[in-house]
Specification:
With about 240 residues, the chain is of the alpha/beta class. The chain has one domain (about 10-240): Rossmann fold (3-Layer(aba) Sandwich), CATH 3.40.50.880. The chain has 7 helices and 10 strands. Strand 9 and strand 10 form a beta hairpin. Helix 5 packs across helix 7 (about 210-240). The longest helix is centred in the C-terminal third of the chain and has 30 residues, at about 210-240. The protein starts with 8 loop residues before the first strand and ends in a 5-residue tail after the last helix.
């Protein structure tokens, strides 16, 4: 990490190539941050100083945090996230990333028994409506869900959102950590890559189809682009304001 500008790097931990920062990347650039991706399972996560980047974003992926027997680097990732959270540094987790954060905070992560795949609204809690997620509230918007695992709310965390299928869709922890089970970062173009990369999961999920996901993406992605950018922008401005 020594080649990066001190304090100006946004480090993104990526698990599959097509699940990237999406609309977050230009928001980070506008705030003077340089994005650096590291690839889980390829790059040595244990060699990363978890306190050096200005921001760490843990992205999504199709594995479970409980599969460390098959993917030993999961332990390194959880330890990295735990040190980051313990230091109260700006940290954002998306889907698998949120599950990594929950595990790093000692909460249980486990299969729901059903898949939540597709666009649907969030139910924000009272705390959620007072948070940076406020633009995502209500039936006028929808976000992309794509997961089969969930987590218990970590001790000391504040639940910000739920859906009928999944009680813990978002939580805040400390003053600068946000975990989102859903995907407000995706763009319409990005979803097209997901439709290829997740073809087997789509084919085996009852009631889910490429045609249906594409149609819903055309309807909701432009709305989520505006409201997701507003939510992320508000959160970034809050957590990056104070020096780390």
């Amino acid at each position: 990490m020594s080649a990066d500008a001190p304090g100006r790097t946004a480090l993104a931990i990526r698990h599959v190539a097509f699940e990237d920062l999406g609309l977050l990347e230009p928001l980070l650039a506008a705030r003077g941050l340089t994005v650096r991706y590291v690839e889980a399972g390829v790059d040595d996560l244990a060699a990363i100083d978890p306190l050096e980047p200005r921001l760490i974003v843990i992205l999504g992926g199709p594995i479970g945090v409980y599969e460390a027997g098959d993917y030993p680097w999961i332990g390194d990732e959880i330890r990295l996230v735990a040190r980051r959270l313990g230091a109260d540094r700006p940290t954002l987790g998306l889907c698998l990333g949120a599950q990594m954060m929950a595990a790093a905070l000692g909460a249980r992560v486990y299969p729901m028994g059903v898949k939540e795949i597709g666009w649907s609204p969030l139910n924000l809690t009272a705390a959620g409506r007072q948070s940076a997620l406020a633009p995502l509230d209500g039936a006028e918007t929808a976000v992309l869900h794509w997961h089969g695992d969930t987590f218990d709310l970590p001790a000391g965390a504040t639940c910000l959102a739920s859906t009928a299928i999944c009680a813990n869709q978002a939580f805040a922890w400390g003053s600068r950590a946000l975990a989102l089970q859903f995907h407000p970062e995706v763009t319409a173009e990005g979803v097209e890559r997901w439709l290829i990369g997740h073809t087997l999961e789509i084919a085996t999920a009852p009631g889910v189809s490429v045609a249906g996901l594409r149609a819903d993406t055309q309807r909701w992605a432009p709305v989520c682009l505006r409201q997701g950018a507003a939510a992320f922008g508000t959160w970034l401005d809050r957590v990056l304001r104070a020096p780390t």
